[in-house]
Design goal:
- It is built from five helices and six strands; from the N terminus they run αβαααβββαββ.
- By secondary structure, the protein is an alpha+beta fold.
- Strands 1, 2, 3, 4, 5 and 6 form a six-stranded antiparallel β-sheet that branches.
- β5 and β6 form a beta hairpin.
- It is elongated, with a radius of gyration of 18 Å.
Length: about 150
């Protein structure tokens, strides 16, 4: 991967994607707890390596390789899949999108939610890592009311 200085692997400048993201939820603590259960033997690999075939296909065609190797099998890098949901998306709601498509969608649409899932295509490990809201809508609703005469 050939990334120039000052540019992220997904093609955005630093802060470009984060500037449009709001209501970010990071699921790193849940991930860490789930992996601790696996390493301690309280959860089986069958319980955590259960990616649906559609998720594996989305990882192959729409996923973005991360720098993180699989915490379970350690065979390959994880793929990140971005799923989009929202009323403004209509028929596109629930689809996997490439990260470069998200910025374009954020310019055109009022508001939608993105869920980022990490997937290992070898052992089928998968976990929700992050969710956030994008779009032209405001971060909080306006409470101003029109003056009445």
């Amino acid at each position: 991967m050939n990334v120039q200085a000052g540019q992220r692997p997904d093609g955005e400048s630093p802060g470009e994607g984060t500037r449009q993201r709001r209501a970010v939820v990071d699921y790193a603590l849940q991930r860490r707890a789930r992996l601790a259960e696996v390493y301690a033997g309280r959860a089986s690999l069958h319980d955590v390596c259960d990616a649906h075939p559609y998720l594996l296909r989305a990882a192959a065609f729409h996923g973005q390789l991360s720098d993180v190797s699989c915490p379970v099998c350690r065979k390959e890098q994880l793929s990140e899949v971005h799923y989009v949901y929202g009323d403004a998306l209509k028929a596109m709601s629930g689809q996997a999108k490439a990260p470069r498509e998200l910025a374009d969608m954020a310019q055109r649409l009022r508001e939608f939610t993105v869920y980022v899932v990490e997937v290992c295509r070898s052992c089928r490990w998968n976990h929700l890592t992050m969710s956030f809201v994008m779009g032209q809508g405001s971060a909080r609703p306006s409470r101003r009311r029109a003056a009445t005469e």
